[in-house]
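Our preliminary data section would be incomplete without showing what the modeling component actually yields. Below, a chain of 222 amino acids is followed by its predicted structure, encoded as tokens that our downstream tools consume directly.
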Amino acid sequence: MSPVPFSPAAARAHRAGLGLTPGQVARGMAAHGVRLLPTHVIAWESGELRPTEEEFIALARALWCPPAQLMGTRPALLRDHRVARELSQDTAARRIGVALRVYQEAELTGTWDGDEERTHALAQVLGLRLTELVEVTGRGAELDQRLRRCVDGRWQPHLRAVARLVPVHEDDLAAVLTALHQEHQVSSPHWGAATPTLPPRDRPLAPRFWELLGRIQTEIPV
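Predicted structure:
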């Protein structure tokens, strides 16, 4: 797996903003269990080296900033979201309620096979929105395929499958799938009436799905 996203410029800016020297940052990190030389801090800020996961979390604590601010980009992997919450794999697995090896496999493969209860726990522990949850658990492609089947035919047979991918009350999903289905149906125009303008069939359906779902108050925010 690639290293934790890290922005040397962000780390340098946070240190300068606090008026700290590299030595003071190193001492601050030591208070959080990570002992190293000031030259390590300098090497991170120059981009010569990248901090390990443990060093990254300790650095964020020493700089009094959320870890995500040192990433330079939004978290894109389960690992990134976990580190942004300053959690170890063991702690995350315990809070979610799964064995450590199960959680480690999820981070390694970017997929998630947990049941509805564990999926809710995953989102809560890592602070994931629904869109992020689907993205980081490798469910995006399958969701779009399911949505395509919903608009090409009857959506009802696919409700359970969509609910497995997007942990939302089935009544709410039914309302969204009904609206999505209706938007994509071709009705025979009356004589002289203009042909209805329909969304391109090759356009991904997920953005519109999330837009419709976002109008509903869900337990896990969209």
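The chain has a mean pLDDT of 91. The radius of gyration is 23 Å. Preliminary results of this kind motivate Aim 1 of the renewal.
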